[in-house]
């Protein structure tokens, strides 16, 4: 886990990001990821918010769910961004479990009086049209819980199947450094709205 402080100060609110490799700077130099760019933008705009990146490469929704209570206790965040689910699909885990885990995380966050933003993901076309629809629907369903904001597909700006080399690392799964500012631009409007 890495802490990125957007603006020092004892009175700073905390924003907790609980995600997987997409948010954990997998394959990137430290400070290049979208979370680090978010912290810098918050600082530049004068928001007294401390960004805590608790993302772990390979994390599933079950892992995030099990870690969340301790994270809530340790950091007492005012805002929580949940970016999980992709590894559930890669491992073929039941979508019912993914939904239940995300709902439990949302409920725990809200019980701790945190605002919640859910970052949705999509699976590659080779998973099949029905599975792709069902997977995307998980995020839509969880976002129906009261007070949950949703970015339906956080990689929307970079996921061009015809040009994956431009914004993805050689594995064609993890975004490269050039993609990170575009990811931030995709999620920023929802974050900005959450701060209002």
UniProtKB/TrEMBL annotation:
Example of a GO MF term: phosphatidylcholine lysophospholipase activity
Pfam families linked: Lipase_GDSL_2
Domain of life according to the entry: Bacteria
Domain SGNH hydrolase-type esterase residue range list: 18-178
PANTHER family recorded: THIOESTERASE 1/PROTEASE 1/LYSOPHOSPHOLIPASE L1, THIOESTERASE 1_PROTEASE 1_LYSOPHOSPHOLIPASE L1
Protein name as it appears in the record: Arylesterase
Origin species: Lampropedia cohaerens
């Amino acid at each position: 886990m890495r802490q990125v402080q957007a603006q020092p100060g004892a009175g700073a609110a905390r924003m907790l990001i609980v995600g997987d490799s997409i948010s954990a700077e997998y394959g990137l130099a430290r400070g290049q990821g979208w979370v680090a760019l978010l912290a810098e933008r918050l600082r530049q705009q004068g928001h007294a918010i401390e960004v805590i990146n608790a993302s772990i490469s390979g994390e599933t929704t079950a892992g995030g769910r099990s870690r969340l209570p301790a994270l809530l206790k340790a950091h007492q965040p005012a805002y929580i961004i949940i970016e999980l689910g992709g590894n559930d699909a890669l491992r073929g885990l039941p979508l019912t479990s993914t939904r239940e885990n995300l709902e439990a995380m949302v409920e725990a966050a809200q019980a701790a009086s945190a605002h919640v933003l859910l970052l949705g993901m999509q699976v590659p076309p080779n998973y099949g049209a029905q599975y792709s629809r069902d997977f995307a629907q998980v995020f839509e369903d969880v976002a129906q819980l009261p007070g949950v904001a949703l970015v339906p597909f956080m990689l929307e700006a970079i996921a061009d199947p015809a040009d994956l080399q431009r914004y993805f690392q050689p594995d064609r799964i993890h975004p490269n450094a050039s993609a990170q500012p575009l990811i931030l631009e995709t999620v920023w409007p929802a974050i900005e709205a959450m701060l209002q």
